[in-house]
Structure formats: structure tokens, C-alpha cells
Amino acid sequence: xxxxxxxxTTRNAKSSARHDGEGAKxxxxxxxxxPLVSLKERLTRFCDRNAALPSEERLxxxxxxxxxxxxxxxxxxxxxxxxxxxxxxxxxxxxxRAFKATKSWAGKVGKENG
Length: 114
Description:
Blueprint: E1 15-19, E2 29-33, H1 37-52, H2 63-82, H3 90-98, H4 103-112
């Protein structure tokens, strides 16, 4: 399956409003940062660079490529964090460790970006 990805970075994934559980009906809201935002931003940059290449040099963006690149970025981020080269919050590290780059995730990322 070929999924086109746009050249624009979507910022909707960065935060979303949710109820924090306070009050009888969860009446307070706060922004919650997506713990995989670093991975998604790097993946978007990869796709943007790919789209800027001449057509004969461009990679075909498929769910398989998104999955493979997502897992590669995951490892880069975790290794960088261990070496002190990348600063990640505890929630981000936990989310990256749990990240599996499933086919459904890759499909969703492809649709969100193009």
C-alpha cells in the first residue's frame, strides 16, 4: 500500500486536551504532550527530505517503510538518551520502549500526513 505524505508537519499530534480526573465530572482540562512526538517529528522530517528529492531518487513511502523507519528512529532516540545526547522525559522513554510500529500505526501516520 502506497501512502502519500505531505510536506507539511502536522502539529495536531503534539498535544490534545483531556480530562485530568479532578472534580466530579472531570471539569478541569490540561494539555497532554504526545509521548511519541519526537519520533513522529523525525519521521516527518525524513518524509519531507524524501519528498524534496528528484523523483528518480525518491523512496516510495509505504506502510512497511514507515514501520521500518519508525523502529530505526526509536532506537536512535533511546540510544541518544542513554548517551545523554537526546533529552527525553520519562514518559517519552517508556512510550518509546513500548513502541512496536504496528501496521495500523503506520497506516494512521500515513493518513495523518498525506
